[in-house]
Design brief:
single chain; mainly alpha; three-stranded antiparallel beta sheet; 5% strand; metal ion binding; metal-binding
């Protein structure tokens, strides 16, 4: 049906992306447009300011043209014979040649912090603040980048690294910049200036406005103009200029969304009319934790689930520890929840002494650090269970405010007399408030005020316990301790409530068993498609998918419709196979292949050094090593130089030159039975073991001889082996 291939987005020469160039150009257009808007807003503010007469004191008839000249740095030079400091510092004398020089903006700003400036110079200084406002970064990642820039800047110039002293912290940014210039003879670069945020400049502006004696109304309007930025959560467009990409869809009509994130949140896979809940919300944490418990089984038998009694014991003990921070048996707030897993296993085995192993835990792949073996997967697979971090933090905070009873239980469905809702719902509402604050930091104060108005019991308890503090500040400080607001769960809070209430610890169903028809919306789609002759190519227009995926869907549907149109009358079509394009010869793939080749070359050199064939001091001619030689070396390294079948050590000395005499590569699952010739199905063993094993699996061979238990213990100790390969051995 023809080719559906598209040009690669990356440049074949250097791998640069066309969309990246467009993004940079779009960013520059926006910066210029926003600067122009601020400039016009500032001019309007100056003309509208009747209290300070900034315009009246400017000479000339066309005052707007004169202001534009001031803002563009074209201040007309006045005929001042002694115009050094006598006339408010328009000029200074160059110490080298004695010539007059116009003041820089940094010098003018510092002067304005201690004495009044001429009106035209003051206008120029105020506009300069609007052009260089510092950074407005709010996220932790951006803060880390700023700190990284500071560190790199200090390391890059040892002469300036001792400049940043504690006594300079209380100085304004312009004062620090001028001191830097006087000490080193040049101004700070972009990296050094990145340490100053907009709040630092705002404090400096407040000092300057006070020294200049400008009116309060002008000062407030100017500070508002300086501080104005569009929050990401507001999105593009406005009620006067709507756009389909923002919150406002039609001109003059209010949006149903409070912020842009609400529009982009996906829908629940069980209840399509409900938005998804937060991935790390207290309800989601409890839902995932109960689901993990219901996935556990005893001694490798998936039919032997945990009893209701043991699950009740586990949850009860966790609830006791939630409100008792000193009781740290579970280690609920530790980053590594290995302690929680160990405590759960201990409780299960204590309940039933005949339990040998507890299976069904999720595992986390942890790479070892400072590993000498560079070419094998040096990993440790740790058992994990869903942590309850946000649930524990919020519950302890509410308990400190005496809003949660000491007999608190996370599965209790009784309404709290103080809040008129369940404790879990109350805890989850606090998290949702924290999430809104995180996504709307510029409106954080308003959000906290509304939250405390809705939950007056929190406000009253805070006022009771902290009479000298502002309730909004107390809640704000606590919200900063919470984390993980950026992702959403696949389910809504309504679906989570269903599982927690109807399953919880009463049944042993996991979420897949409880929601067998969670893809009801897709089932409805399949039913509709089965009744039509042609598929509408716009069926995915409302899905939240990338443009590339959307285009692939449209092209696929076009192909399917054409096939059905041409062949369905004469043929009974059972299935249609669509072949994907082969790997492209792109810049990224070529670079990846080159890196892989360099990695293999490094491995070969490592082998040669260990075999004493290659000396860094004296490199002569050496024979080439085959891919088989490299393969057996990798296998031996992965096995820690031990024959896994019998536990005997593999001799490393002169291994490459002599391995064929004593060892062979064995397929763990015989090739005739698995047709699997991958690295995951191979091991190196002695010739005797390989011949004895024959066409059998390790269990069939060693199980009959009673050695399988020792074999199983042996390979479980290997941290370097891939988890998938361990399963192949089992």
């Amino acid at each position: 049906m023809g080719s559906r291939l598209f040009p690669d987005a990356a440049d074949p020469q250097d791998g640069s992306l066309g969309n990246e160039k467009r993004r940079i150009a779009r960013h520059m257009r926006r910066r210029l447009r926003r600067a122009r808007v601020r400039k016009n807003a500032f001019i309007k503010l100056v003309f509208d300011n009747n209290d300070d007469n900034l315009v009246d004191l400017i000479e000339g008839e066309d005052k707007r043209k004169k202001i534009l000249e001031i803002l563009e740095g074209k201040i007309l030079e006045k005929e001042l014979e002694n115009s050094i400091w006598e006339h408010k510092g328009y000029y200074r004398i160059n110490a080298t040649d004695g010539k007059k020089e116009r003041l820089t903006m940094i010098e003018a700003k510092v002067m304005g912090l201690r004495e009044k400036l001429p009106k035209d110079l003051l206008i120029s200084v105020l506009f300069h603040y609007l052009k260089h406002r510092g950074y407005f970064y709010e996220s932790e990642l951006d803060k880390e980048n700023i700190e990284k820039n500071e560190t790199n800047s200090e390391k890059s110039n040892s002469n300036t690294s001792d400049y940043w002293q504690p006594d300079l912290i209380n100085k304004h940014p312009s004062q620090n910049q001028l001191d830097f210039f006087r000490k080193f003879g040049y101004y700070m670069g972009a990296k050094e200036n990145a340490r100053y945020d907009a709040k630092s400049y705002l404090k400096e502006i407040e000092t300057l406005l006070q020294v200049q004696g400008l009116s309060k109304s002008f000062s407030e309007k100017y500070k508002k103009l300086f501080w104005h930025t569009r929050d990401y959560s507001e999105g593009p467009g406005s009620i006067q200029a709507p756009t389909i990409y923002g919150r406002f869809q039609k001109k003059g009509k209010e949006t149903p969304y409070k912020n842009l994130w609400e529009k982009t949140i996906g829908k629940c896979s069980v209840y399509p009319d409900c938005n998804r809940g937060g991935k790390y919300s207290p309800k989601a944490e409890l839902f995932n934790f109960l689901n993990d418990l219901n996935n556990l089984h005893i001694d490798g038998d998936e039919t032997k689930k945990l009893s209701k009694q043991i699950k009740q014991t586990i949850v009860d003990k966790i609830c006791l520890e939630i409100l008792d921070p000193e009781n740290n048996k579970f280690g609920l707030l530790q980053k590594d929840n290995e302690k929680v897993v160990g405590k759960i296993e201990e409780l299960i085995k204590k309940d039933d002494p005949y339990v040998a192993t507890v299976n069904g835990f999720r595992t986390l792949r942890v790479e070892k650090k400072n590993v000498k073996k560079k070419w094998s997967d040096q990993v440790v697979w740790k058992k994990i269970i869903t942590p309850l971090n946000n649930l524990v933090k919020i519950a302890r905070w509410l308990q400190s405010l005496e809003l949660i009873d000491k007999n608190f239980h996370i599965l209790d469905q009784k309404l709290n007399e103080k809040t008129n809702m369940t404790d879990l719902d109350f805890i989850n509402n606090v998290y949702d408030c924290a999430s809104r604050v995180h996504h709307n930091k510029r409106k954080a104060k308003n959000i906290l005020v509304d939250f405390l108005d809705d939950f007056t019991e929190i406000k009253s308890q805070i006022q009771l316990k902290y009479p000298d503090s502002n309730p909004e500040d107390i809640v704000s400080k606590f919200v900063e301790k919470l984390s993980d607001f950026t992702q959403t769960h696949s389910l809504s809070y309504r679906a989570m409530d269903d599982y927690i209430k109807k399953v919880g610890i009463e049944k042993s169903e996991n979420q897949s068993q409880f929601f067998p028809n969670r893809d009801l919306n897709r089932k409805d789609l399949r039913d509709k498609l089965s009744k039509v002759k042609r598929i509408n190519k716009t069926i995915f227009k409302d899905e939240i998918i990338s443009p590339t995926a959307r285009r692939a869907f449209i092209q696929t549907i076009n192909v399917l419709n054409k096939i059905l149109k041409v062949y369905s009358k004469n043929y009974d079509i059972n299935n249609i196979t669509i072949e994907l394009a082969r790997n492209k010869n792109t810049y990224a793939e070529n670079k990846s292949n080159k890196d892989e080749k360099n990695k293999n070359n490094a491995l070969t050199k490592e082998i040669l050094r260990d075999e004493h064939f290659l000396d860094d001091q004296k490199c002569g001619k050496i024979r080439k090593f085959s891919n088989t030689d490299k393969l057996v070396w990798k296998l031996a390294e992965e096995q820690d130089w031990t024959d896994l079948y019998d536990g005997r050590p593999i001799q490393k000395n002169n291994f490459i030159s002599s391995w064929r005499k004593y060892y062979q590569i064995d397929h763990i699952i015989p090739w005739r039975r698995s047709l699997n010739d991958s690295f995951m199905n191979k091991t190196i063993t002695s010739i005797i073991n390989n011949q004895s094993k024959g066409n059998r699996t390790p269990y069939e061979w060693l199980g009959n001889e009673g050695k399988y238990d020792e074999f199983e213990k042996r390979f479980h100790k290997l941290s370097s082996m891939n988890q998938k390969k361990l399963k192949t051995f089992i």
